[in-house]
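Researcher: Please predict.
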Amino acid sequence: MTAGWDDVNVGGQLKVGSGVVPAIKEGDQKINGSAFIEGPAVFGSPTHFPTTYATVNIGPLSNPDPDSTPPFVPGALCLPVSNPYALCVSDNAAVMGNLDVNYRIQAGGDLIVSGSVISNCGGHILAAKKNFDIPHPTKEGWRLRHTCPEGPSNDVYVRGKVLNRTEIELPQYWKKLVDFTTITVSLTPIGAHQDVIVKRIDEEKVYLQSRSGIPIHCFYHIFGTRADGERLIPEYEGESPADYPGNNQEYSVSGYHYDVRKED
């Protein structure tokens, strides 16, 4: 028979499980108000997790008490008007491992950030130029920094080399991803001038032609603008990214407040 209590108050330390827990100390040195739960522990809906996915499993709120879902103030801490999150942290948080937003329970999820996305111990801010910085692969005592290109259109590209062919096959997924009327092609002959030209372009291929049928040997670089979503508006009148006249959600992984920074 299981005993039940209406209210339980622990004035000192709560331990569920066994073992010495250095983080909360023991005996006379214990930290009052601290707790240890060996786990696994489930919070929220009791049936949301069909098995143990983690030490702490937090599901959607299932408490029917109306006081458990107070009306949230729009705009306060970015909380919605109703339906609170499964986890809310109002101060700094640290993740000492990988953060997976595409795990088994559902097909995937969004990573939504209202401020800057900072990685590499502060070395990379997504809102700034998109750099990576690594030890130089061939020069001792040097480093190598590259940055991503930026432009006024939502382009994708493919590159490669043509040898004794008059056609360049475009990736199959470009049919739905790219507006083929926006495709541009750059060609660089290899070894000798061949007067290579782009004869025509369709959704599947780029067709080439050379002078007097000379065998074609060249590099190619092909750009195309994405067909999904709306076109980027590179210049617009306004005082902040919030004034952008299009859909902000399409153009920023970290949220559209690129120019908002926390002052030291």
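Model: Residues 253-258 have pLDDT under 50 and may be disordered.
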